Amino acid sequence: MRTLAGVEDEDKWLAEGIAGIQHNAFFMHRALDANNLREVLKYSALMLSELRTSKLSPQKYYDLYMRAFDQLRQLEIFFKDESRHGLPVVDLYELVQHAGNILPRMYLLCTVGSVYIKSKQAPSKDVLKDLVEMCRGVQHPIRGLFLRSYLAQVSRDKLPEIGSDYEGDANTVMDAVEFVLQNFTEMNKLWVRIQHQGPGTVREKQEKERNELRDLVGKNLHVLGQIEGVDLEMYKETVLPRVLEQVVNCKDKLAQYYLMECIIQVFPDEYHLQTLETLLAACTQLMPTVDTKIVLTQLMDRLSNYAASSPDVLHEFLQVEAFAKLSNAIGKVIDTQLEMPIVGAMTLFVSLLTFTLRVHPDRLDYVDQVLGACVVKLSSVPKLEDARAMKQVVALLSAPLEKYSDIVTALTLSNYPRVMDHLDDGTNKVMAMLIIQSIMKTDSCISTADKVEVLFELIKGLIKDLDETNAEELDEEDFQEEQNSVARLIHMLDNEEPEEMLKIICVVRRHLMTGGPRRLPFTVPPLVFSAVRLVRQLESQGGDIAGEDVPATPRKIFQILNQTIEVLSSVPCPELALRLYLQCAEAASDCDLEPVAYEFFTQAFILYEEEIADSKAQVTAIHLIVGTLQRINVFGIENRDTLTHKATGYSARLLKKPDQCRAVYACSHLFWVDDPDGIKDGERVLLCLRRALRIANAAQQMASATRGSSGPVTLFVEILNKYIYFFEKGNPHITPSDIQSLIELINNELQSDNGNTTIHSDPFFTSTLRYIKFIKQKGGLMGEKYDPIKL
Known about the structure:
Blueprint: H1 7-33, H2 37-48, H3 58-80, H4 82-85, H5 89-95, H6 102-119, H7 124-134, H8 141-155, H9 173-193, H10 203-226, H11 232-249, H12 253-266, H13 269-274, H14 276-284, H15 292-309, H16 314-319, H17 322-336, H18 342-359, H19 364-379, H20 387-403, H21 407-411, H22 416-420, H23 425-442, H24 449-458, H25 460-463, H26 476-490, H27 498-512, H28 520-541, H29 554-569, H30 574-590, H31 594-610, H32 615-631, H33 637-652, H34 657-667, H35 682-707, H36 714-728, H37 736-753, H38 763-778, H39 780-786
Helix pairs in contact: 1-2, 1-3, 2-6, 3-6, 5-6, 6-7, 6-8, 7-9, 8-9, 8-10, 9-10, 9-11, 10-12, 12-15, 14-17, 15-18, 17-18, 18-19, 18-20, 20-23, 23-26, 24-27, 26-28, 27-28, 28-29, 28-30, 29-30, 30-31, 30-32, 32-33, 32-34, 33-34, 34-35, 34-36, 35-36, 36-37, 38-39
Protein name: Vacuolar protein sorting-associated protein 35
Keywords: Cytoplasm, Endosome, Golgi apparatus, Membrane, Protein transport, Transport
Family: Belongs to the VPS35 family.
């Protein structure tokens, strides 16, 4: 083994070797020009003697070898031309064997042997066998590897394969295979032997050097893969067993890994499929330190791509029971390699699942079997903390989602949720988001309560806090995105059968109620609207439909809704709860359920009284209540009077006068509904408007007292527009004189307010007057009604 030396020493030795090659090559070329065979052999042997050095690293030795190789090509041309050296090739083959040193002798013998085969004066198999046997004379690992690499290179185009010039009665494809296998065997032995050379302190450097030399050995397998005539039978009976024998017996980590990788890459996919059992058996016999997972992963990837290349080959996978063999082999590897990290096992399962989804997409039992094996392995680990392993588990769970366009298919896999249980909270949420995104992307509809149950078990990380200590750590923006995704998911749950849809709603409600105060404001509204949609579906079908277990009736659904919104109101989130109560009241009205609608309004008023304290929220709530109440026509006189009295009373008690005014005149619509059957109480409309006018006056006086001016007349103009609206609707209690008086009041306010300024009249008021003028000019019945009004 060469001694350790610095880079500078190696560069010096390389330079000396190159100089020696160039010096002797010069004299060799002079002898070639003179056709002097004796001198050619003398100087070529001296030139090749430079390759006997043991001081160079493989990389430097390769540089030196290439210089000699270039000269050997010139020498081969000379040997081919018998007219130049005057010696038959048979005699030449004998002559070069008299060279003094074994290494130059073998290089010259290989060169002449190439010419000898080409001359066809002897069967190529005999010459090749002679050469491969005689090369055993060089046992130095690096020198022997490069010598045999040269032999492989010069003989590549002279192998007796089918279709070559050297195929004949005496030469068969088997002879070519035998030559390459023998050369490969010897080269592998030399390559492995490097690790046993020299002291143990240089082991790391030896491994690096061996890695640099691996392609020399691998080229033999590439040649085997390219030989014409190596059919499946020959590959199964001869080539693969001989190669695997070398791989298993060499007991070397680097050699086993690299050679298995070469086997997978260089031989055809259909050969791998037909010899799968043999190949997998070898994988289980590799050294424990070999990274078998990469070997198996590459094999499964190649087979997967082969299956995807054509549907016609899929039956072959079934014939050889590829899945069962791969699954068993992976199980054995994981069981025997006790030190394999969990990430390695997960990587193998991901590759097996990818293979299964590509080759057997219709076999969900295979997919579930892979997930089940993953569960068993994960159960043997106290807690999954390796981030890389976690990433592989996510990839494992994501594969079925990507393969099946219908997420419902993945929901039928019994081991899917069991795998998710082994994820940490953060990764569980990531996986849950991927599931929801897959449903949204494929526009899948989950239509049964059982599947919804499975789905919500899978995404429970988004629905409730799995770990209380992390409940407040999530970024608010991320939290809102997660909950909005859950809300969108709820809208994807649907079934045309009311009974089943009610079961779905009950399942979803049971899960959502565990979400806590932060989540309910996001998740309850879509649940409520899904239930309301079901109510309207029942109403359109003509009433109640009873099921065996849960009666799907509007009344039953409203009971569930009442309980659900009650939970939301206690979060507390009173404004949202009030809006939902009003939505339910309107739905109950459409179903002609007066007591239910009245109860929802009662709950809304209780929330308003007890929970809503903010003045702006009160204003919004009053307008929502008034608007909803105005659209509902299910109430009898007594109930309606009670509710309208409450609404007008709350309106008059708002904090700010402008808010009071607007709420009170909005209440006027409660007494005049523009429907054929709607209430039309013109007197109470007028009372509301007059009350609003008094409040507006009070607001003006307060503004005058505090700011020294009466302020804008917007409230008066808004009330004027209400007078005009009801006047046009035919309210007999609204007269032209009322409108005339209000116009004059506004003009007076504007004049008093602008007495010392150049501010023009209010634009809203100007537009209103323009409208009145337009109607008067238009004429007709409405124009005549406006005639008494003077502008």
